[in-house]
Amino acid sequence: MPVQRTILVVDDDFEIMQAIRAVLENKGYRVITASDGNAGINVAERENPDMVIVDMMMPKKSGFLVLERLKKKTQPPRIIMITANEGGRHRAYAEMLGVDDYIRKPFAMDRLLESVKRHCPLDAPMPAKESASEETPST
């Protein structure tokens, strides 16, 4: 029997946030949103989501600062960072902070959905923590 999983999407791009929300809700996830890093931290602390999908570059607080703060929680959520930034240094820093996956924009929604299902399944217990997967840009 599927369990209810909550995913917080934090992105300042409304269209991307809504597209991710629509796809995840269609698959059975409960989705909550925030449009900047400060709001994302506040919502995460109030709602305690199973997963956070966070953009790297946002106003008020970057995705790195959100990631850093959430990973300090006693039971931190799984975190997927999405970004248009192509720098390998940023990916390495995100991995050092404990991101579960790192996906470059633009990405195929199937790529994001595959990562969500792997790290936050609806039909199984949360899997053991693993390092960020290798990501190949979609064409």
What is the CATH architecture term? 3-Layer(aba) Sandwich
* Count of structural domains: 1
- The assigned structural class equals alpha/beta
Task: Report mean pLDDT, rounded to a whole number.
Answer: 89
Give the SSE order as H and E letters. EHEHEHEHEH
Q: Helical proportion?
A: 25-40%
Please compute the radius of gyration using only Cα atoms: 14 Å
CATH secondary-structure class? Alpha Beta
- What is the overall shape? globular
CATH topology title: Rossmann fold
The CATH homology group name: Response regulator
Low-confidence sequence ranges: 131-139
Q: Count the DSSP helices.
A: 5
Can you tell me about this structure?
This protein has helices at residues 14-26, 37-47, 63-70, 88-97, 109-119, and strands at residues 6-10, 30-34, 51-55, 78-83, 101-104. The protein has 139 residues and is of the alpha/beta class. The chain has a single domain (6-119), classed as Response regulator (Rossmann fold, 3-Layer(aba) Sandwich). Strands 2-1-3-4-5 form a five-stranded parallel sheet, sandwiched between helices. Strand 3, helix 3 and strand 4 (78-83) form a beta-alpha-beta unit. Helix 2 packs parallel to helix 3 (63-70). The longest helix is centred in the N-terminal third of the chain and has 13 residues, at 14-26. It is globular and about 35 Å long.
